[in-house]
Amino acid sequence: MNKPDYSFQSKLVSQCLEHLRNHSSGGVVLASAPGAGKTEMSIEVIERWVEENKKKVLVLTHGQTVLRSQYFNRLQRKERNFSFGMLNSKNPTSEDSVQVSLPHHFTDRDAHGYGLIVVDEAHHFFSAPMVQNVLKANPEAKLLMLTGTPSPFIAMKTFPIVSFTASQLLEQGVITDPFIELVKTKLPFTLKNFNQQDNLVEGAEFTSKQVNSSLDSALSQLLNTLTARLKGTRNPKRYFKKLSGKKLKSALAQLDFGKTMVICHRQDQARDVVAYFKAKGISALLSVSDDDTDSANVELFRTDSTKVLVVVNRATLGFDLPSLRNIIDLSMTHNPDRIFQALCRVVRRGLNGDKKTFIKVTTDGLAALTYVVMSFVVALSLPEYYETFDGRWKDRKVRIKKSSGPSGEHTGKGKKSKSPWEDLLPLPSLIDIKGMMSADSSLYAYTTFNEVRARLDGTRYSPGHWTLERCKEEALKYGTITSFQRGSSSAYKSSRKNGWLEVVSAHMTKKRQKYSKEQFLQIASKVDSRRELKVNYPGLFASAVKHNWLILVPKLSTKQTRPAGYWSEERVREEASKYSNTHQLRINSRSAYDAAVKFKLMEELCPNKRVK
């Protein structure tokens, strides 16, 4: 096993300090997967900040005493050139240069006088009222946010982001490439059971029988993966069929499956999981908010011989668990951020360098969609996804392997009626996904979550789909008939053909709107280019051209032109990945569309939604 190379850390520290020294910057986000050493890098930033500024530093950790102690213990590992202390009920105030605290410590205490505030696990609680109250009490303080998933800050566009992705960490030998497996079960959930955050709705329940059956499937797959690992093969074969009862208990006893975390949707489900393992003679601990307020069981799991830790929301927190070898995700979530945070728990290098395993449990009906979700999650290891993902992902293209067999490619076409998604190909690993981006395009296809969803339920291709009620629902997404026509042409055409257009567009602006200069300036501040203004606000753009208002905004005053030969095949693919179909590509980036036609990339970019 190669020795990890941490030389990248000094560069990231320097970049963070550069942003903190910049008077126009309020702070900086340091983003990377677990194992990169964000805590150590933040301490290095603190050390140099204290030398230069002589101002107090506050480190806010997530609302778990274990995480506060974890950060404080890192400070104690070696001699520092600054004093530091932990704020708690026994030590409510401190004169130390660096103070580590939970945010609710300042609920009824003064929080003034800090020059730098470090927010650990910032993706979880930067926007929480308790944290924001501390920040408001220190308006001049610089901010250093530590996170493994920077998507909230990418969406905010407020702070510069210094990042080092999982694929880069893998190249440095800092993390390992886990096995990633998808397990199908008979659970009854459909997309109707998911909320806007792509998590199961709170009311979705698992019976004890469903929990047991799901765990039987997941553990059988884990045994397959472990057996494949022992035999030195890359992809697990079906060494074990689905086991249950005494056979599964016996198989688990024969193989050392290592410390395992099981992620659940609700606390009642989590308690059923603990009961399941105890019935098989396997030690298990439960860490949920009702039973383990200070996450003491997480610390116990880390230090003793307990095999299984069962959690609900705490899987996404940055607990230091190097001995963790497996994760079974029973939460059913389709939220890429949550899954990526959980996956990152098993990319950290193990104590013996063992490969680790991440098992995602899904249902038969949702398997194809979950496959795309997991492919996108793995793609977040790459800079082009990690550094641009702002939380919106369902129309974001991801490259997947084409299926080979009688059912044809992932198009639904073939001699047999069998779904092309029925037998899913193995999910890509962190190493695979990087190679897929530059590999022979005939072996792979780009797709999106929404494309696969439409393909499976037939909403784009089945005749008679666009009923009056569906057209009304679709039309509510648009403010003008023009935007409706451009954004959902099939719904628009059906409405017009059936004489429903007036009904479905009743809420839309019908007459040509007169725009003022003030309205133009207000909207112009929100767009990044002339193209964006023209596509999203065609009427306003026309008024701006007519009245010569574009010269008032520097970024819109000149038309950006690209040099001849700018559009290479790779640039076309990158541009096309921003859109769900070639119609949107043609509307929003005509030059890239024309180049795609020239390079004969249309079928590759969007094989089933080509616009003729």
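Second entry:
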Amino acid sequence: MEFQSKNVNVFFHRVDEGISKAEEASGKHSQRHEHHLPAPGEASISKTELNQLPIYFYNPDWFNNWTSGQKRQFADVHQVAFFPDASSLLLGKQHPDERLSNKGFTQKYWDKTIETYSILHEIENDDELDADSNTNDKSYELKDIAAEEFEDKEVE
């Protein structure tokens, strides 16, 4: 599918290979269907784009051709997963990034992901809208007060 990231396809192919090897080693055989990538240049039959998936699922070139509204419709821009190069994953040895702390891993991949998918503007706009709507909405204050009262009761 033209909208799906090649990196994600490589990752799922590696997962399928790993499952097959584990089944062979244990002597078990399942009836699962193996996923195969279409030959290059072969168009997918399905023309329906999948909506509200994590951003790394989509091909960056395909994704960046859309308007801001379409980007929000297709992908959940707030659900960003840092997906390193899949060709170096699931090889039976520890990936160097596994030693990084969560903060270090995020710092390493944040700029690359935001730049690749051109979504920094989307996130900043959404944050501004959320801040504006929260300042005018008194229900947030009531929810905060109720939450504090509930927490106080749990502590006692």
